[in-house]
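Memo to structure team: turn this sequence into structure tokens by end of day. - J.P.
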Amino acid sequence: MRVKTLLLAFLLAAGLPASALSQSRPVSIVLPVPSTWVSQSSGTLVVLHVANDGVIQGAFSSTACGPMATRVIGKVVSQTITFATTLASCNRIMAWRGKVSEKAIATGVTTISVRADGTVLSTGPNGDLFARTR
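Reply from structure team:
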């Protein structure tokens, strides 16, 4: 529960309004579905579905916290993309915001980590580039 609350707070701070996931206005989607994107930092984003209103569903995996894939939520409007995931195995929330094209997603990524003692650490935004592989 604490991680979900942190994720929602982080999405709001990263610029994704809470209402963005429920808006139903038409958007120009440039994100191919299904598609796989590999980042320069060895993370893999798999986009499984993009709804008509731009809400993204998919998975993210990274070797940073083990090979387990986690759920991705986000939104794409025109060429702007925002998405986030919770890596529960290492108490980490990651959120990306940037631009998407047919072959690349250029983003800034912010990471929030919660240590065992409850200390919260935040880094970013740092640059991250995803290349489309499928």
